[in-house]
UniProtKB/TrEMBL annotation:
CDD domains: CysQ. Mg(2+) binds at D95, D225. This is 3'(2'),5'-bisphosphate nucleotidase CysQ. GO terms for molecular function: inositol monophosphate 1-phosphatase activity; metal ion binding.
Amino acid sequence: MPETLEAADVATSDIELLDRTAIAVRAAGSALRERFGEVVRHQTREELMRALAANDDTALDILRPRLTRLRPHAGWVEDELVGGALPPGEWWVVDPAEGNINHLHALPEWAVTATLVRDNRPVLTAVHLPMTGETYTALTGAGAHLDGRPLDVAPTTDLGLSIVATSQARPGEEDEVVRRVGSSITAMLSDALVVRTAVPATLHLLHVAVGRIDAFWQFAGARADLLSGALLVTEAGGRISDAEGRPWTPHSESFLACAPGIHSQAVATLTR
C-alpha cells in the first residue's frame, strides 16, 4: 500500500524534511519503473513530447501533493529547461523524470529528483535511481549520502589520470553553445584519461559525489539538472564553479564540478 502523509506529519526540521522528500522521490520512481520496458519508436516530435509529458505527469501526480504538504507555502518549479535565479523564499525544484528520453528508450540511466531551494541556495536534495534502487541525499552542512553511507569525492590530483564527463547541448541550443561543447570535449580528450558524454547531467554529478568519476562540466545548464548535483558534490567535499573558475550561480553560463585536486587543471583545459 502506498505511503501517505497525514496533516500532522508536516516536517519540523530539515533533517526530517529530507527523509520525507526521499520517501516521495522513491514513490514516484516506483511508478515510473512500472512504465519502463520496451522501446516505443515515435514517428513525430509531437508523439515523443506527449510520451515525455506522460512520464512527467505520472511522477508529478505523486510528488506535487507530497512535497506541497511538507512545505505548503513553497513555490514550485518543474520545467527542467529553465535557468536563472528564483525569487526569494522557498522553492521546490523538481525533475520528475531526469533522463526521461533514456526511460523511453529502455535505457536505465534516469532518476527522480527533488531539491528544496531557500533564498536561491539549495538546502536539501533527494535523487532516486529506480533501476538500481539507490537514493542519494544531501543536506547543507550535514554531508552527502548514498542510502545512508557518507560520500566523498575522489582524491584525484592529476587530470591526466581522471575520468571526466559532460552532457550534450540541448535540442535547439544556440550554435555558440554547441561549438563550446564540441571544443571542450576535444580539449578534454587531449588532457584527461577518459571522457564520457551522455545525459542526464544529474547522474554524472552523482558519480562525482561518490568518487566514481573526477569531474563534470556543462554549458548553459538549467536549474533542475544542476542544483541537486551541485549540493551533492559540495557536501561530498567537491569543488563547484563555472568553467572559468568563478563562483557558480544559477545565472552562470557554464558549470564545473570536480575533485578539488584537479579543479585548476580542469579550468585550464576548458578555457584553453
